[in-house]
Amino acid sequence: MSAFQTLKAARDAGIRIVVDGDAIALDADAAPPAAVLNLLSRHKAGVVALLRTGSDGWSGEDWWCLFDERAGIAEFDGGLPRTSAEARAFACCVVEWLNRNPVRSPPGRCRGCGAGEQAHDKLLPFGTEQTGHTWLHSRCWPAWRASREAEAVAVLSAFGICMRTSS
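RE: above sequence
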C-alpha cells in the first residue's frame, strides 16, 4: 500500500491528520482501527510528505487529486484504457508542475550554457511576462527542457505519481 492509499484509508476511517514538523497529529471521533494506525505508522514519512505544502503551494495530496481527476476524465469521458488515461494524466501533471515552478534568469545569460548572446545564436526569452523569462540559446533549449521535465518527474515520483506502463 502506498502513502496516498494509507492517507485515503485513514480518512475513510474518520481520522483527521495534521502535519506538525516531521510528526503527524491524529484526531478522530471514535477509536481508529488498529490496521489503519499500523499503516500510518509504516507510511508516516510518505504521509507527511503528501500533506506538506511545497513552494508551489500544492501538497502531494493536491498532485494526487489532479492526477486522479485527469485520469478519470480521460478514462470515463474520453474512453481511454486506464493505462493510457494515466499516461495522459501524468503528462498533464508534468506540465502543471512546470507551470507552477517557473525558472527565471537575468537577461544577457543563457540559463543552459551560461554564455551571453552570440551573433549566430541570439538569446531568446522562454516563459511569460507574469512569471518572468528564462533566457536561452535555441540550441540550449532542448537539453534545458528535458532537464526541467526530469525535475518534474522526480518530484511527482517522490509522491508516488509515476508513468505506469501496461503489464
